[in-house]
Amino acid sequence: MHELITRTIAAIPEPDLAAMNWARLRQEQLTKPPGSLGRLEELAIRVVGITGQVPPVLRRKVVIVVAADHGVTVEGVSAYPREVTAQMVQNFLRGGAAINVLARGAGADVVVVDAGVDAELPAAPGLIAAKVRRGTGNLARELAMTRAEAEECLATGIRVVQAQIDRGVDLVATGDMGIGNTTPSSAITAVITGRPVAEVTGRGTGITAEQLRHKIQVIERALALHRPDPSDPIGVLSAVGGLEIGVLAGVMIGAAARRVPVVIDGFISGAAALIAVTLAPAVAFSLIAAHNSVEVGHRAILAHLEKVPLLNLDLRLGEGTGAVLAFTIIEQAVRILNEMATFREAGVSGRSAPREVARRFARRREGYLHALEGGIWDDPFRHVDGRRYRHIVSTDLGRLIAWAEARGISRSRIVRRDLRDYRRNGERVVAWHIDLGGPYLDVEP
Q1: pTM score, two decimals?
Q2: Class of domain 61-333
Q3: pLDDT tens per residue across span 270-280
Q4: What is the set of active-site residues?
């Protein structure tokens, strides 16, 4: 694997649990009933866990729109000709597209990346020339790209986003442009989620019912030809992916390694997230799902990633439009956490005595330290959606397996999620985790 990819994946940190505990404690002290701001509260806590900042700071936002062409368009899978990709890139650069309008309203920059547009684009402010090749191969008849090209796409995304972070960006949205790109996105989704092609393939730019049936057949033919392995995401990207999809996956990996939240847009960004998370599971925590696209495959992606989107506006444009709309919600969630008065500051009587809150926080800290020492931290809690959950964590894998098997829980539910030992300068410690998510599994500890 490309050295930059390997190094970046190894650098992805675990969620900052101590910072998240601070955020949860502060949410309980703000002048409101606990949980009354719903998902805004959990969203702010997640941002704290991703960034590790107490309090969190979001100053500069960018949407990275990656453009590329697709050889599969010769199969008649899109309602628009391939030339539209290059034309829309020029529209982005002139500031006339939907994403430009929404980004201006959100106070976000737009950066356009040419990952594989089948045209020579003149240099322009806001355009990053990073062409891996001029469009993919026709995935129905040949590999979309070589494995080396797939790795270069991922590396390109890492370089692009980390250059933005070096300039001060602390919140990233992903966008895309590429005529025909719902076809590789459907193929990737079918492979990685294991769902039938017909369940994850939609009308894209507005094709007819007959064209949709043909599109499904094209994808099925491609999967039968290449037989991509769902456990090999780079192989999947090489066989049936898109250049912009690979670059977006790299953006997600690169941002996660630098503790920057990534707001994923719709179907194409979702397909990129499948590649990124399959390759590096630790990326998942840094991803925030912006909206629920009209594309049927997007729902399958969100279910697979266990993400609940912030918005449901029947969007299907791409470009990062839904992700930029979500920027405001994320910023407001953080502002509530940072700026809202606590009961003590406002002189308002709180629901819980400070002593109770401190005792609850101390119990969580004691459990966290117990897990670091090889014990089992059994952490039940109630989510703002009203459901109860349990996380069981330990640095002793054998002990955790025995705990699970004694209670009839499959060891396949155990995943690696390292902890950070704040007694030793925050170094990462190998740990193991069982998530007994809702509906709550009432197992005695």
Answers
A1: 0.79
A2: alpha beta
A3: 999 999 999 99
A4: 319
